[in-house]
Amino acid sequence: MVTIPTVTLNDGTTFPQLGFGTYKLTGDDGIAAIGSAIENGYRLLDSAVNYGNEQEVGEAVRRSGIRDELIVTTKVPGREHGYEETIHSAHASLDRLGLDRIDLYLIHWPNPSVDRYVETFRAMIDLREKGLVGSVGVSNFTEAMLTRLIDETGVTPAVNQVEMHPYFPQQALRAFHASHGIRTESWSPLARRSELLSEQVIADVASAHGVTPTQAVLRWHTQLGSTPIPKSATPERQVENADIFGFTLTDDEVRAISGLERGRLWGGDPDTHEEM
Ligand SMILES: NC(=O)C1=CN([C@@H]2O[C@H](COP(=O)(O)OP(=O)(O)OC[C@H]3O[C@@H](n4cnc5c(N)ncnc54)[C@H](OP(=O)(O)O)[C@@H]3O)[C@@H](O)[C@H]2O)C=CC1
Ligand SMILES: O=C(O)C(=O)[C@@H](O)[C@H](O)C(=O)CO
After folding, report:
1. What is the distance in A from the centroid of ligand 2 to the CA of 124?
2. Which of 20, 23, 75, 192 to mutate to test the pocket of ligand 2 (most atoms within 8 A of CB)?
3. What is the pLDDT at residue 194?
4. Mean pLDDT, to the nearest integer, of 48-71?
């Protein structure tokens, strides 16, 4: 089992430098894959109402016998934005998870045309006051949206989970996060196993350290101060993906990997993408 190092969030929570994505992990196979990730050392799990797998995540957590060591994330979907809607959504998620607390609760997408993310966040803050939520955060928020949220609620999100991989290194947003104490989380950190893993620069860096291209990419995330949440249904790959803390990339290597930048891969621009 790998021991994954931690950082401290702006609300004092101890938070892993690497977590586990669960999108598409459903049914008995999903429970087994999530259970194996926990056995392999992952302590941060990423789910969402829209993944349709909160029951599976909750089941794997209960079976692990180490519920208190785990940070279970779920997310408010666009169709449930609004104060009352969010309170209701949280209770429904808790029921499906079969847990008494959502450890990290995120707004999945800002959906700016709906313009209800501020009241959604207020409800999440109140849920935190009641102990039903641990940390409050967001996903797919821009600098302007974060600024508005902080100005209007007085609470800085603990986390902003955004698309990030070597093709989209998010340099400006990460700098804003760093100056406000917001932890970056990278979704699709492996660019969903696109041609990224065959890039020559990544092969060269991996070979210099005697690691795999996947490990070089995930280490790049952590050295840039982000928590990647790779998904793998395969126990061997889960181990490979977590075993990245025994080597350190040089600044030049980090820069070379960031040089692959070419922009978002799937058109998920938070200013225009609306996900219900
Ligand atoms: N907030 C948001 O809007 C979003 C959040 N997310 C979150 O981020 C998580 C991760 O992103 P995701 O889109 O799943 O993509 P990832 O970048 O994590 O890539 C997952 C793919 O890579 C493969 N893979 C994993 N490890 C390896 C390895 N070591 N070698 C070769 N292939 C590998 C997996 O295959 P296999 O399973 O067969 O090993 C799978 O096909 C999601 O599961 C979800 O929790 C994702 C998108 C948006
Ligand atoms: O997986 C998620 O959390 C999502 O939000 C996805 O729907 C994501 O937006 C996507 O797949 C974009 O292509």
Report:
1. 22
2. 23
3. 87
4. 98
Nearest CA to ligand 1 atom 28: 237
Tell me the β-bridge partners of 46.
Answer: 21, 73
Torsion of the alpha carbons at 118, 175, 178 and 106, rounded to the nearest 10: 30
Average pLDDT over residues 110-139: 98
pLDDT of residue 81: 98
Contact 145, 116 (CB under 8 A): no
117 labelled catalytic? no
What number does the ligand 2 atom closest to the CA of 48 have?
3
Q: Which of 49, 108, 190, 240 to mutate to test the pocket of ligand 1 (most atoms within 8 A of CB)?
A: 190
Task: Give 244-253 pLDDT, tens digit per residue.
Answer: 999 999 999 9
Q: Which residue, chain included where needed, has tokens 């989209």?
A: 168
Phi and psi, residue 232, nearest 5° = -145, 135
Instruction: Say yes or no to pLDDT of 116 above 90.
Output: yes
Domains assigned to the chain:
6-258 (3.20.20.100)
pLDDT at 3 (0 to 100): 97
Q: What is the DSSP string of 38-86?
A: HHTT--EEE--GGGT-HHHHHHHHHHHT-GGG-EEEEEE-GGG-SHHHH
Tokens matching residue 242: 């977590």
